[in-house]
Specification:
Elements lengths: L1 H17 L6 H9 L2 H36 L1
Length: 72
C-alpha cells in the first residue's frame, strides 16, 4: 500500500512540474545570449567536485574502518 501511495504522489508531483509555464524571461535571455551554457558548465563542475570529494571521503572512511577492525 505504501509503494502504491508513493508512486501516486510522485506521479502527481511530476505532472505538476510538467504543467508549469516556461515563460521565464531570465532563462530566455541567457539562452539567447549563449550564457546558459556557462551556467550549466559551472553547475556541472560544482557537482563533479562534490561527488569527487564524497567518494574520496568514503574511501578514507573505509580505510579507517578496516584499520580499527584489525586492531580489535
Amino acid at each position: 500500500m505504501k509503494k502504491i501511495l508513493t508512486v501516486l504522489i510522485l506521479l502527481f508531483s511530476s505532472l505538476n512540474l510538467l504543467a508549469q509555464n516556461s515563460d521565464i524571461e531570465m532563462a530566455d535571455k541567457l539562452r539567447s545570449d549563449g550564457k546558459i551554457y556557462i551556467v550549466v558548465i559551472c553547475i556541472v563542475i560544482i557537482l563533479a567536485g562534490l561527488l569527487f570529494y564524497l567518494f574520496a571521503l568514503d574511501k578514507r572512511l573505509k580505510l579507517l574502518e578496516k584499520k580499527s577492525s584489525n586492531k580489535n
